[in-house]
Give the backbone structure.
Amino acid sequence: MKLDLATINSLAAHLEKAQQEVRAVVKITDQHPALSFDDAYAIQYAIRQIKLAQGSRLAGLKMGLTSHAKMKQMGVSTPIYGFLTDDTACAEGGEIDTSKLIHPKVEAEIAFVTKAPLKGPGCHIGAVLAATDFVIPAVEIIDSRYENFRFDLPSVIADNTSAARYVLGGRAREVGELDLRTLGVVMEKNGQIVALGSGAAVLGHPASSVAMLANMLAERGEEIPAGTLILTGGITEAIAVAAGDNITVRTQHLGSVSMRFI
Ligand code: OOG
Ligand code: MG
């Protein structure tokens, strides 16, 4: 299906309003069952335009559903991408206000920052590693705007892949010193280990998530510019959080990222 521009803009405004009002809505494919991936990304780009017009700045890009743990949890099998804005960055060791979120969940991720542009098609791990300035551990706080966190792929793409907040922390390192596949990650909630995994959970190697992003963007004639922050996707399943919870993610060789939900 190819939605007309007015429908794309009104669905974008609808999802943006749900986020502003901290209110879950029915997934948009209930009303538009034939929504295509192209339509869904068009809605996501329209949300991006709304946010930029409101004064937010683009802070980076994200991949989602890149690990089997995440795909299994959400019942889908294709990675997707979205965008991050500067006003959703939260301080390491800081507090995150749950009253502004619907039903937040946390994900342990490895983030990349590029030093050269990456362009598909044909982008591969080698090109990504050569273009990487540094990697840094991250926690993404996702918050689907859909009731019960239930969606299909077109709905979640339109909803900017549930992006809500993110925290960078720990220690930035050059990739040459690290084996990102065997890098261990442990997530603790209130001192208890709730999830663990290693970098290979993300498409075999987190850099392949960045390569896939470059190749997906190429389909729209876009590239990843130098200096882009990219969250490569949750290594483990996402963990629900509520006010009072403390989260710490410890990533081997990269230190820890912590936050408290209030
Ligand atoms: C979609 C976003 C998934 C990740 O890291 O896999 C994501 C969702 O599960 O709500 O950000
Ligand atoms: Mg994520």
Notes: The two ends are 42 Å apart (CA to CA). The mean pLDDT is 96. Helices lie at 5-20, 37-53, 68-74, 125-130, 153-158, 206-218.
